[in-house]
Amino acid sequence: MVSELDLFTRITNAIVKRLSRFGISAFGAKELVVTGRKSGQPHSTPVNPVRFDGGLYLVAPRGQTQWVRNVRHTPQVVLRSGRSQDSYTVQELQGASAVPVMRVYLKKWAWEVGRFFPEGVTAKSTDDEIAAVIPAHPVFRLVRK
C-alpha cells in the first residue's frame, strides 16, 4: 500500500516534471535526464539544482535512488526546462567537500525535502552532523560539457 506521503510525492513530482517540460520552473526545479544503467534508455526525474561558489550541484534528498545509481554508472546527464537543455558531466563529492553544498541545499530546499533527512539535520547543523548524512544523501557537481 502506498502511504499518503508517497502518493503526495509522486503527484508533486509528476506536476513539477510536466511544468519543467513546458519551461516553467517551480522554485528553480529542473528535469534531470539520465541514461538507465540496465535499459540504456533515457529516464527523467525532477530535481532541485543548487548553485554554490560558482558551481551547479545536485543533492539526492531521497538517498540512493535510481537516478543516483544511473549517474554513478554513466556520469553524463541533461538538465531540461522547456526547450532549454544543458548537458553535464557529473562528479560525486565526498566528505568535507560536500558539506558546504549540502548546507546551502538544506537552507534553500528544506521546506520541501527536509522530511527525507534524519531529524535535527538542518542547514544550521554542525559540519560533522552534515558530513554524517552525505553517504546516504549523495552530492554531485555538474560540469557543463
Automatic annotation (TrEMBL):
GO terms for molecular function: oxidoreductase activity. Pfam families: F420H2_quin_red. Transmembrane segments: none annotated. SUPFAM superfamilies: FMN-binding split barrel. Gene3D superfamilies: Electron Transport, Fmn-binding Protein, Chain A. This is Nitroreductase. It comes from Flexivirga endophytica.
